[in-house]
Amino acid sequence: MKALVYLGPNSLIYRDEAEPVPQDDEVLVRVEAVGICGSDMHAYHGFDSRRPAPLILGHEAAGRIVGGSRNGERVTINPLVVDPACPYAAEGRWHLSPTRQIISMPPRPGAFAEFVRIPERNVVAIPDAMPIAHAALAEPVAVAWHAVRLGAEKLHQPLARCRIAVLGGGAIGLAAAIVARHFGGHGITIGEPNELRRKTIAAAENFAAYAPGSTSQPTADTIDLVIDAVGAAATRAAASAMVRPGGVIVHAGLLPGQDGLDIRKITLQEVTFTGTYCYTPTDFRQTVDALASGALGGLAWFDERPLADGAKAFNDIDTCSASMPKLVLRC
After folding, report:
1. ∠ CA(155), CA(161), CA(165), 5° rounding?
2. Does residue 256 register a pLDDT over 90?
3. Cis previous bond, 218, omega within 30
4. Closest Cα partner for 74 from 145, 16, 12, 126?
5. Which residue, among 143, 149, 151, has the nearest Cα to 172 in the 3D structure?
């Protein structure tokens, strides 16, 4: 099969690889669309020791099952593979299980390829009318769904009465704003340094997008719910400043470092600070249903590229020349 293979820092090659062989509890999926995630970029730069080269990256995938009783069925993939007997799985928090694996990390090759193997319990059927690229957005949107749900559960008022700020206008940040709106949120603003992305966000989803540090940035102590989809020292500092007393910060970014948090303010003003990681199977299925029904809008915020041009797509993201928050590779 053809695959886009990570060879080392800033190096990808499109070449022939052995076709995966599904195990007893798995299905083989012919990949038709797969998104490029921020974690793929992190690995591409050589910053993720969990993803050693050579490796097939990619985990935001959708396609068709090949072979078996479900041959030809259109599905999207939940890439988190967890032992169903794990106590965390039994309590519904599969994503926190120490047994978890994810495709695109050894021992599970990823989906920047014509085929990928995955446990059958990890595929979710999609309607025939659902565009396959929309189905590939299920994984990143589920991350945002989970983050917004956690934040909403920790607030002391409905989202409809809250001011919400999202830091980062990439796929996770924009999806978080869309999900927050779906849950009833209003007055949502997005901080994004890339001017091209700000224009896309405003045109595609009609959100107010500001440049960090500009006069449009929310002032101190005014935001009920902050979702930090970047997780850098600068965004943690911005979140600490803008959150109101008794407000909530949801930290979704995975950049290294711990600087930026105003611990004194968090303590004295009883600010809730919580991490968020991935999603539960329920979050994932609810996200798929919302995407399939059109409840999350027209999704006009991604570009499609051929898998064979994946190396250029990575470079375009790296050089900030991609205006869309998400690039989806088509096989």
Report:
1. 70
2. no
3. no
4. 126
5. 143
Provide the pLDDT confidence category of residue 226 given band limits of 50, 70 and 90.
very high
How confident is the model over 149-195, as pLDDT tens digits?
999 999 999 999 999 999 999 999 999 999 999 999 988 999 999 99
Q: Name which of 197, 172, 176, 160 is nearest 254 in CA terms.
A: 172
Tokens of 62: 């959708």
pLDDT for residue 9: 97
Q: Which amino acid is at 278?
A: C
Q: What percent of the chain has pLDDT above 70?
A: 100
Average pLDDT, integer, range 274-296 = 97
Q: HEC profile for 59-108? A: CEEEEEEECCCCCCCEEEECCEECCCCCHHHHCCCHHHCCCCEECCECCE
What per-residue confidence (pLDDT) applies to 251? 98
Contact criterion met (CB below 8 Å) for 138 and 284: yes
Nearest to 116 by CA among 37, 182, 62, 43: 62
Phi, psi of 248 (to 5 degrees): -130, 135
pTM summary value:
0.96
Three-state DSSP class for residue 223: strand
CA angle in degrees (0–180, nearest 5) for 202-236-47: 90
pLDDT of residue 184: 96
Give the span between the Cα atoms of 272 and 245, in whole angstroms.
9
Burial code of 146-167, b = ≥16 C-beta within 10 A, e = fewer? bbbbbbbeebeeebeebbbbbb
Supply φ then ψ for residue 326, to 5 degrees: -140, 140
Q: Is residue 245 classed as helix, strand or coil in its secondary structure?
A: strand
Distance CA 105, CA 112 (A): 12
Contact yes or no for 143/252 (Cβ under 8 A): yes
